[in-house]
Structure formats: C-alpha cells, structure tokens
Amino acid sequence: MSTQKKQGSNVIAIIVMIFLFGMISFVTNLASPMGDILKFQFNVPNWMGTLGVFANFIAYAVMGYPSGNLLQKLGYKKTALIAIAIGFVGVGIQTLSGAFGSFGIYLLGAFVAGFSMCLLNTVVNPMLNTLGGGGNKGNQLIQIGGSFNSLSGTAVIVLTGILIPAIADAKISDVFPLMYAALAIFAFAFLVISRTSIPEKTREQKQASAVKSGYSALSFRHFVLGAIGIFVYVGVEVGVPNVLNKWLQNPIGDGGVGIAEAVAGSVAATYWLLMLVGRLLGAAIGSKVSAKAMLGVASVVGLTLTLAAMFAPTDVLVNLPVFKGGSELFGLAEVPVNAALLVLIGLCTSVMWGGIFNLAVEGLGKYTEKASGIFMVLVCGGGILPLLQNAIVDGTSDYLVSYWVIAAGLVYLLFYALVGSKNVNKDIPVE
After folding, report:
1. What's the chain's Rg over C-alpha atoms?
2. Residue 278 contacts residue 347 (beta carbons within 8 Å)
3. Partner residues linked to 321 by β-bridges
4. Closest Cα to residue 290, out of 362, 239, 219?
5. CA proximity to 374, closest of 384, 360, 385
6. How does pLDDT run across 224-246, given as a tens digit for each residue?
7. How far apart are CA 160 and CA 180, in angstroms?
8. Domain-wise residue ranges, the chain
C-alpha cells in the first residue's frame, strides 16, 4: 500500500514539474519577439532590442549559484513557490512598462522574471532526473518535460506574431493579452503546487549533503565542461530563432527578407514546434539510447544544417506552413531555403539540454543540488550569445554571417559528447 501511495505521489510530482517546464518556456520565449517590439517602439539597434533577452538570462548569472543553496536549504516545493511569486512580480513589471512606455521598466521586469526562471530550472531538472532514477530514465523524463516546454514556446511566438499588426508600429501594449495569460498561469501554478505533495530529501540526506569536504561539483571535470556546454547550448537554442525572426521580418534595405510579421513569427515558431517533435522522439527513445550518443548525433546534424543555411543561395525559395493572421489564418508561404534549414535545427537542439544535464551530473551524488545551481549560472549564455549575434548583424548588415557563432557552439557540444562528458574523477566520494 505504501509503495502504491509513493508511486501515485511521484506521478503527481512529475506532472507538476512538467507543467513548470512549460511555464519557463512561456515567459522566456516571450522576451525574444518583445525585442523586435522594443527595437521599433524605442528606435534602438538590433543589439539593444536584444537587451530584454539579455536581462532575462543574465539573471541566471546572478541567481544561479544562490538558487542551488536555496534548493538545498528549503527543498523543492518551497523553492518552486518562491520562484512562482517572483515570476508574477516580474511579468507584472513588464506589463507596467507597456502602460508607461518605458524601456528601462521593461528591462527591470525581464531581469526579475529571469530570477524566477532560474529558480524554476534549478528545481525542475534535478527533480525530474531524481524521479526518473537518473541514467537513461532520468534523461527520458527531462525530454518529456522539454516537450511541454517546446509547446509553450511555440504558442508564444505564434500568438505574438498574430497580435502584432505591423512590426514598425508595434508597441508593448499589443501583447498585453500574453502578459495577462502569463500572470494567470503563475497564479494557477502557485495554487496547484501549494496543494501538491512534492517528494523531498530526508533530514539525514540533507545533512549528509551539507557536510563539508575538500571537494565540490567543480572538482569533476565532466561537470565543469558540461556547465560550459549549457552556456553554449542555451545561446545556440535562443540565437537560432531570434536572428531568424529578425532576418525574415526586417525590410530588405536593412538586410532582411521583408515578409509579414505573422508569417515571420510563425516560421520562427516552427523551430520551437520541431523542438517539441524532437523532444517527443527523445522521450520515446531516451531509455534505449544513451545521452552521449543522442548529443553527439544532434551536434553533427545541427552543425551541418547551420553551415548549409549560411552558404545556400537566398533566392531559392521553399513553401512552409504558417499562421498568416487576418482572413487567411493558415496557409503556405514562400521563404528562403536558408530559413527552412535553420528551422530544422530545432530537431537537434530539442534533445541537447536533457543530454548535457544528464551527462554532467552523472556520478555527482550529494553534489547534485549545488551542481544544478552552477548550471543555472551558465544559462546566461542564452542572453550573451544572441547579443553577440545581433552585434555582428549591426556591424555587417548580414544576418546569416552571425551564424558562425552558432556553428562554433555546435562544434564545442560535439567535443563534449565525444570527449568531455567522460567522468575521470570517480575516485571522489559522493555519498
């Protein structure tokens, strides 16, 4: 009876963690199309329009390590509730920025929301890995959570494109419906989690984890290289659709393609939709295929697609299914073949987070919670690498050349899968 009760409790906990995974994507992905709105509403260059994404992710660098300590001290449930409350405040501040028309207030809200996303990530990943029992099963659960994450990300990009009538005249107030939805999601999640029983470590386990030793998570080479891998990966994941969306919707005279905002947003959203497809496939095979093999294959294919997109002729067009907005809500639209190749990278990035996290924390034992906090610090790559990409665009007026940043990142991830993920510090006690 007690075993059945525990299994039922675990199922509820897993569902809650997967739900939180979706919340992370909903709020985080809202920052990318918001950058295009900021660019035109406040007449700033591409790199400044990306400051909302930067503020959201740089919060990870500030809060990442403390979040690991908080998780170890308060446990999963209390940390999650604190994160949700902070997220409500962050999105609320962003909504106020639309009412006051303030660039600075928006950046403050994005930064506060980033604190929340950092805390939630710190809770969700080790919790799902633990509930799955680590190893391939743990990776499988993270992939399932990632699938819901991708679904939320797809919805936000598509809805933003539909809500914006014309990018040159866009204002923050145009996407108020999405901000209200985010506030409602936070409020609902707080109520659900406050009434849900989340498995926690026992007092003895916490005390054992807190015992001082001459080692730390940073004593493990495969973890350090994996943390760098997360920095690179999140930058790649965010950078690919961020620059793609700008390239498609900006005027031809500015180096862009000049297609409708709803269509451009829908093409970029297809990237997140393919991440959903990839994560579902990853979840299906996650218990049979090692994280190392999955990450290695995804890196090779992603690198091939990136290079092909950079060098393919831009006058070759292909049809992609898109949401058009207006009277014809759904249909086909012609876009450069480069865009289709970049969209396909979503299939590759879909399985990378779970694979890197799984490989990096394997064998860490009592250092896992602190390791998760360090991981969150390095998530700031999602703000730094896209900022670098957009600076390259401003300097060269060439959107595709900025994808050398993506190519370099994928080379590193291939190195980590083949070489860097091996645990060479098995002599360190982890109990």
Report:
1. 21
2. yes
3. 332
4. 362
5. 360
6. 999 999 999 999 999 999 899 88
7. 13
8. 2-197+204-420
Q: What is residue 364's DSSP assignment?
A: -
Q: Which residues neighbour 143 within 8 Å (Cβ) at sequence distance 6 or greater?
A: 279, 280, 282, 283, 286, 351, 354
Distance CA(190)–CA(187), nearest Å, equals 5
- Tell me how far apart the terminal alpha carbons of the chain are, to the nearest angstrom: 29
Q: Distance (Å, rounded) from C-alpha 305 to C-alpha 99?
A: 42
- Kindly give, in sequence order, each residue whose CB lies less than 8 Å from that of residue 304, ignoring residues fewer than 6 positions away: none
Long-range contacts of 362-366 (CB under 8 A, 24+ apart): 362/134, 362/135, 362/222, 362/423, 363/220, 363/423, 363/426, 363/430, 364/217, 364/220, 364/223, 364/430, 365/430, 365/431, 366/208, 366/209, 366/211, 366/430, 366/431
| Domain spanning 2-197+204-420, CATH architecture | Up-down Bundle (1.20)
Bridge partner residues of 164 (DSSP): none
Residues 373 and 383: their CA atoms lie apart, in Å, by 18
Work out the average pLDDT over 203-224: 71
For the residues 242-266, what does the mean pLDDT come to? 79
Q: How far apart, in whole angstroms, are the C-alpha atoms of residue 117 and residue 237?
A: 16
Sign of the alpha-carbon dihedral angle for 333, 338, 342, 348: positive
* Phi-psi category of residue 198: left, alpha or beta, with phi > 0 → left and psi -120 to 50 → alpha: beta
Give the containing element (helix H, strand E) for 331. Answer: strand 330-336
- Look up residue 305 and give its amino acid: L
Residue 2 has a pLDDT of 45
